[in-house]
């Protein structure tokens, strides 16, 4: 009789393992299906959710006059919503900064990041990036009467930048004895510069140009000491969304929409040699 009991136990165990395996395969299948249908999920929801800046003039800036978020990246994402969902207003613009944007993307709080985000090798380990849509370079913003003319002049000087950005490490690599001051965002860093609490502000020249337009008492100085290609951030599991975004960028660059938006915000023609693929080049890479 013992052999019958052992046989029954063996059959039961085998059945349990088969059920578990099937369940695992089903879960994996569901996961693959979800990962393959990010675009459809957005269409079903009827709204594109994008992480953008609220403090970066020309790119993503909340205008206190009407509380509307405006800028080049905002217009790009509205155009994406228009082509994906048929209406540029079917979009939710969530504020992000250098510290929060990847966390919010990976947590599913946003579909995309379009927030002056430099493509770096380290970030590519965490998320996917679209093709390059803007090329910037790190520079300095100072008061028009400042003696600082180049990055080397910041030795021993107080220089502001935003927490979580690559700008701080870059300038420290060039000028190890710079007195780096970190702020929550670039708006706070610019406020500190205008208040005389720091001697300079460093980040991408594209961001600094927006600050200069807001206050002509400040100027950009020195040569670029990094290459900063911007890409749209996409969760690694959403390959179909990445493909959709890349096609969108290719399309608007071919049909003239990109040129129109670029000239609207930067008052000049876009570069003709913008690469599709690039990563940050800096003193730390």
UniProtKB/TrEMBL annotation:
<feature type="signal peptide">
    <location>
        <begin position="1"/>
        <end position="26"/>
    </location>
</feature>
<dbReference type="GO" id="GO:0016020">
    <property type="term" value="C:membrane"/>
</dbReference>
<feature type="domain" description="Ionotropic glutamate receptor C-terminal">
    <location>
        <begin position="47"/>
        <end position="268"/>
    </location>
</feature>
<feature type="domain" description="Solute-binding protein family 3/N-terminal">
    <location>
        <begin position="47"/>
        <end position="269"/>
    </location>
</feature>
<keyword id="KW-0813">Transport</keyword>
<keyword id="KW-0732">Signal</keyword>
<dbReference type="GO" id="GO:0005576">
    <property type="term" value="C:extracellular region"/>
</dbReference>
<dbReference type="GO" id="GO:0015276">
    <property type="term" value="F:ligand-gated monoatomic ion channel activity"/>
</dbReference>
<dbReference type="GO" id="GO:0006865">
    <property type="term" value="P:amino acid transport"/>
</dbReference>
<comment type="similarity">
    <text>Belongs to the bacterial solute-binding protein 3 family.</text>
</comment>
<dbReference type="InterPro" id="IPR018313">
    <property type="entry name" value="SBP_3_CS"/>
</dbReference>
<dbReference type="InterPro" id="IPR001638">
    <property type="entry name" value="Solute-binding_3/MltF_N"/>
</dbReference>
<dbReference type="Pfam" id="PF00497">
    <property type="entry name" value="SBP_bac_3"/>
</dbReference>
<dbReference type="GO" id="GO:0030288">
    <property type="term" value="C:outer membrane-bounded periplasmic space"/>
</dbReference>
<dbReference type="InterPro" id="IPR001320">
    <property type="entry name" value="Iontro_rcpt_C"/>
</dbReference>
<protein>
    <submittedName>
        <fullName>Putative glutamine transport system substrate-binding protein</fullName>
    </submittedName>
</protein>
<dbReference type="InterPro" id="IPR051455">
    <property type="entry name" value="Bact_solute-bind_prot3"/>
</dbReference>
